[in-house]
Amino acid sequence: DTAVSQTPKYLVTQMGNDKSIKCEQNLGHDTMYWYKQDSKKFLKIMFSYNNKELIINETVPNRFSPKSPDKAHLNLHINSLELGDSAVYFCASSRPTGSRLFFGSGTQLSVL
Amino acid sequence: GNSVTQMEGPVTLSEEAFLTINCTYTATGYPSLFWYVQYPGEGLQLLLKATKADDKGSNKGFEATYRKETTSFHLEKGSVQVSDSAVYFCALSKETSGSRLTFGEGTQLTVNP
Fold first, then answer.
1. Residue among A3, A10, A25, A22 nearest A112 (CA)
2. B65/chain A closest Cα distance in angstroms
3. Using alpha carbons only, how large is chain A's radius of gyration in Å?
4. Which residue from A43, B19, B28, B68 has the least number of CB within 10 angstroms?
């Protein structure tokens, strides 16, 4: 069974559309994250939730809104998509005080 | 703030060659240090870690030693295989900030038969 699963794996859409990426973890972790990886492979944290509460919110446009219905899920909704949003988005989870992250396999977002 | 600097890639080696990927960090206090690996089309996986000075992390033939005096955590492997082709990320974490990791830029490694 996949520990951290995110869907869809590929997402191709037009500028201006609204889209969501879903993430679920079955590891019993309290903390979940969204990371963005650009075309040069640089990885940057976007958000972190601990037990459904937002604890890290980096400088990310308001068009990005994370939603955590329960501690096993952290979805990412993006409004008014722009060309620069094209990237691979990774969901991850960890224990609150543990430092090891478990990553999903990524969602390749292409905005045309 | 915290930061991690890795040697620029891409790195291309022949099978059985010796590998070194340099990593240096800037942080206050005593961070934990990590190497993550990303195989093509997959998410990152923890490769090894070290939590205090002079600790050596090791896994799958890879090693890295936490050197506080040089603020380094270089990744080494004595004999690489084609299956080691991947992107390698050095990272640090400060326990006071929980599991928040600061990643380096990543180094693409290609191993040719």
1. A10
2. 18
3. 13
4. B28
**Cα(A66)–Cα(A54) distance, integer angstroms:** 9
Nearest to A7 by CA among A17, A21, A20, A26: A21
The answer, yes or no, to whether residue B97 has pLDDT greater than 60, is no
Q: Evaluate whether B70 touches A10 at the Cβ level (below 8 Å).
A: no
Mean pLDDT (whole number) for B94-107: 75
Calculate the CA B3 to chain-centre distance. 14
User: Is B43 part of the contact surface with chain A (CB cutoff 8 Å)?
Assistant: yes
The C-alpha of B44 sits at a distance from chain A's nearest C-alpha, in angstroms, of 6
Q: Is B44 in the A-facing interface, judged by CB distances under 8 Å?
A: yes
DSSP A42-99: -EEEEEEEETTEEEEE-S--TTEEEEEEETTEEEEEE-S--GGG-EEEEEEEE-SS--
CA dihedral A6, A9, A14, A19 (to 10 degrees): -10
